[in-house]
Amino acid sequence: MRRKHMTAALVGGAAVLIALTGCTTDPSVTPGGGGEDPDAVEWFDQALFDTQAAQLEATPEGPDGQPWLQYIDAEMVDTSSYASTGAKKVCFSNASIGNPWRQTGWITMNEQLKVLQEQGAISEMETRDAQDSDDTQIADIDYFISDGNCDAFIISPNSTAALTPAVERACETGKPVVVFDRGVQTECQTTFIHPVGGFGWGIESANFLVDNLEEGDKVVALRILPGVDVLEQRWAAAEKIFADNGIEAVNYFTGADPAEIKKIISDELAKGDVQGVWMDAGDGAVAAIEAFEDAGVDYPVMTGEDELSFLRKWDETGLTGLGTVYSNFQWRTPLLAVQKIFAGEEIPKEWVLPQKSITKDELADALEANEGMPDGHYARFGGEDLPGYPTVWQDRIIP
Amino acid sequence: MSTAAVRPRRRVPLDSTLIVYIALIGVIAIGAILVASVGRNFFSEGNIRDILTGMSVLGLVAVGQTLVILTGSLDLSVPYVISLSSLLAAETMKGYSGNIIQGVLIALGIAAVIGLANGLIVTKLKVNGFIATLGIGLIVKGYLDTFYKGSSGSVPAEFQYIGATGIGPVPISTIIMLALATLVFLFLRRTRTGHHIYAVGGSLDVARLSGLRTAQPIIVAHVICSVTAGMAGLLLASRLGVGSPTVGSQGGYDLLSIAAVVLGGTLLAGGRGSIWGTIGGVAIFAVLNSVMSVMQVNPFLKDVVRGVVIVVAVAVYTGRVIEQRRARYGTKEVAK
Amino acid sequence: MNRVRSAAITLVSPRGAVFLLLAIMLVAITVLNPNFAEPGQFIRFVQRVAPIAIVAIGQYFVIVSGEFDLSMGALITAQVVIAGNLIGQDESKSVPVLLFMIAFGIVVGIVNGLVTTLLKVPSFIVTLGMMLALSGGVLFWTGGAATGNPADGFRQIGRGGIRDVPIVDIIPFSVIILVVLLALAIWFSKRPFGRTLIAIGDSSTAARFAGARVWQVKTTAFVISSLTATVSGVLLVGYAGVHPSVGQGYEFIAITAVVLGGVVLGGGRGWVVAAVAGAFALEALFTLLNFAGIPSTLRDAIQGGIIILAVAYSATTFRARRKGHSTQTLPPGKEPDANDGPAQPAPQMSPATGSEH
Q: Could you tell me the CATH number of the domain that includes residue B130?
């Protein structure tokens, strides 16, 4: 191609690109009514939405003061066929410890393990960490099946659909299989442990914002990553509630990078007023609040998470906020479930744990109970009665 | 003038591919001892299967990456091509075995188109391979993030067998990977384009002045690389049972494949290297990963170990003298 | 008239194209949001580009010498976490920890440089290994999450500035640091060090024969790169706070910025001011996308397209050809070798052989 044409083509291409950036409208703004947004179409599930809304209100059954052993709406399953004595070996296939929430849970789980080892229920727990890779986790589970000598499997799947065949293979061994956190698309496991769920999160947080804002107010939604089931459900529910109540919501993906979050909020503030901030996870909440400080405007109404960095900043600034929760104490339950299974006790087939956000009233207590903990710690970690409390979480040594 | 009398006595220099395999044996030996110390058998069927499975996907990608690096370019778009191909395959197949061929062809076809785009941008627009493939990769990533919100499609059971079964401890996926490696090896050795790939990587100007169409080998290398990435995506779709927009980036296949290629003795500057060396590099990584998992090494430390191993291993190679050109009088040219 | 004309030509040429691109971006942003042009707003924009522009300076020196530094992002994260954990809420520790961070950065740079030059491992691999080691090491040490944001005094470096200045209202410290570093960088590049660096990037053998100590100069370039990553980390602690994902991907952003600025990968050519302009243009692009309300998922695609177009532009336009520079951009780690002998013609000659390159 002749040089002049090449140059012209390149300049033309660049001009088109820049023009496109100027002309494209933002499909992620939902001005009340949200019609053909691909988000809502694929992830929103009315039935699940309603179920979780009900579960948020329900009173859980189970021992008082031990939410990690409580359950909601449970259909019990008989485990007497597994009953046997002796300490059992557990094989744990972990999706990763790649974010502060999972790290906190992992520390808690290991403390719980120590208790059960002392009680003689569990001999050891062998863990394989898949470092966020579906393929690796499938191979890990297969390795456990062939070489692990496992008495029971605990699996925290990296993603729902992809890990389903591997979990089914684990079930075929005839040993008990406990799945927790993200689920899989099969029912073969002995129990599936999880808090109320993503829709529940979205419902609580969005309703809080709607209650504290007026129609027409703007909310900036900060989302970590696309395509992760638990996160997409949170946004799907929130989006619907915002749309139904006339709140203008714009959403951004941040990659949990505080610098990105700050830039996004600053740009939004430069465009106009922002009355509320919604987050699908707690990372980077502080940066978002500081963006308001730097711009010299009033603090927003904000929902974050029970991560201590947000709770502390919330307390410090006195803004109107809510610490939505995805119960971190669920990391204790799988091992306790294994103990119950081998004791022949009934457990719920789908073990729905309570999910209670931290409200303004509970904030002071939560902060006091977690004083000295690092910012990446989670208030609802449920480990206050475990042996290592509080130093193990304060020092944050990953086992 | 008698060359025999003049030639000094020299040690036979070690072929770099040979070095890789010696290193691999060393790693296996150390690994077996470490694994035995925690009461496991390194050579058990399950463990061998784990290692070979770990080699399959990375091996497919690394074979393609070898070609591209031989021409002196790079391909950073592979993770996104992998994800895209897994999605295209899974969505076309929709769970019906009748659609398998169609799914495979569409996935590989689109991968080839992306490779073609990479090759054309590198050769016609004169953009460095790093930038060209980084740019294309980002474009594909943007497409994936916008139009796919999570895993989708469904792979029929027949296709899943590829990822799940094997002959004894050897998975079918590994056999496919080795077959591909052999094909590419023969391609490089026996065909004209294969030789041209080495020539273009060695020195672009010399190649051009020797009358080669320098664009063609580069484009072919990029197309093959993207197609192998597409195959890796198909393999992952088979293992996962669905297509996933993040499966490629989860594995870090771009930087790891480059590391495996360099570990295998191929020069990053191009012009010198071998497929079997790359496979050796992939094997070393797989053994390393497996041993660290069995020993339950802290996941954060695994990355440190990988980083150190990569640098140390390459330092050991480049410490050896590599003959850059054939000596003019008498002494034989060192084999690649 | 002639000066205007030659200035216009420079603007359109590869050397100046990035400034043209930057100007277009800034105009587009202002059109979408007229507030942007207010001095107060604009200076805040400069504040947030500062960390990126500073790493672009560091990466410039490394690329111009013909190498890569992929470890920048991980080093930033490491420094950010070190600052968070070691300073804690105790402001008096700020200075000692700062000195430690600088020393740490220098050590990383020296390791990168020496392994690349003395052990002859391609810098792509060395810095890749360093990136893995740093990120894994830092996460291992902190248990994955940092303790928290350090004392406000330390954070003021990245967040605060000189207040109550007329017109702009605040001059952020980041901006001052950026200006100082840029001035230093320009000065460096005009000194023998800078010129030697470019010569090495062009042909390290020739430079060596001319008496340059290649390993010293290249290692210095890596140290500069690591120091800029450290400074950027300090600024980011202030701006963004402490979190393991701060700094992720900065090496690629830096390389993109440098390449947008017309610096050729493989070394031998480039202007540090253009690299900084590349950083500004990139951040301006992201800001433009935020203002235009482009879904964040499309941003990557647009970024990818622009990178390719920008580099293709500088590689294929008439200026480059006419000056007779080799349009072949060297692949990473490649150095033309003395041993190639008389069979290799001078690579500077680009014969006018039509379309097939």
A: 1.10.3470
